[in-house]
Amino acid sequence: MGEDPETTIRVRTLFLSDMHLGTKGCQAALLLEFLRDYDADEIYLVGDIVDGWQLKSGWYWPQSHNDVVQKLLRKVRKGSNLVYVPGNHDEFLRDYIGMTFGGIEVADQRVHVAADGKRYLVIHGDQFDMVVRHARWLAYLGDGAYTAALFINTHLNTLRRRLGLAYWSLSAWAKLRVKNAVNFIGKFEELLAAEAKRVGADGVICGHIHHAANRTIGGLTYLNTGDWVESCTAIVEHYDGTMEVLHYPSLVRARVSRDEARSGQRPDGARAVA
Asked: How sure is the predictor about 230, in pLDDT bands with cuts at 50, 70 and 90?
């Protein structure tokens, strides 16, 4: 199913991170649908797009993952400006910072100026994760535990779908309820906001922790893109400079409900009788 120009939503800027292409947890099919629904003048890939860690231990690259890459390249060919800010899982690309490949610029970080003049530091965020920086073996161990949680999550949600229940994320539930994880997220957000202030920005747009957010910290705007493994979220900048976190599964459900409501009504507004 191709893009429909009449239904595609155009935004000024699109921020995506933590796709983890190359892993079984990546929700590539849903991501592809999102990329068909949204187009942008400028696209930022805010790290962990390709999961080099996982690909080193075992090659996994289905057609759906290739389709996502091809879709992004097609957007570049059609005029979108694309900036790739590598993260820790695709850190091999940090060797190419400052270079441009096929219209895609690789940058360590970038200050994005929004339509309303506000300045946002765009950075993956792993630089402010002390585990990733100083205990790489522990980061790999944590990544393995996360992968295991996703495996359990997949089978659990297959059962939930059969029972007619909504999607539920085991790892997201655990992250928000384990005290240390909550403290880590809070500290991470504070450090990123402080870095934005240090470089003279009005806010920060980051990824890394798979926890979408749009909040004010110390007078600065903290925005996190979330991920495309569990939550399937992104940030868009509208043409007036407004930043919005989109939870794509919710948008899909709302659209399906609207379509069902329309199909269940006659043109004159009266309910159709089955």
From this structure: confident
* Residue 3 Cα distances to 211, 250, 257, angstroms: 29, 20, 21
The dihedral sign for the CA sequence 100, 235, 80, 122: negative
Q: CA 211, CA 221: separation in Å to the nearest integer?
A: 15
Sequence-distant (≥ 6) Cβ neighbours of residue 150 within 8 angstroms: 24, 25, 171, 229, 230
pTM over 0.70: yes
Under 8 Å between Cβ of 32 and 64: yes
Residue 171 contacts residue 146 (beta carbons within 8 Å) = yes
CA angle 11, 63, 146 (to 5 degrees): 80
Contact 118, 200 (CB under 8 A): no
Determine the pLDDT at residue 129: 74
CB 230 within 8 A of CB 169: yes
- pLDDT of 134 above 60: no
16-60: per-residue pLDDT in tens?
999 999 999 999 999 999 999 999 999 999 999 999 988 988 999
- Give the Cα-Cα-Cα angle 100, 112, 249 (nearest 5 degrees): 90
- Are the C-beta atoms of 38 and 11 separated by less than 8 Å? yes
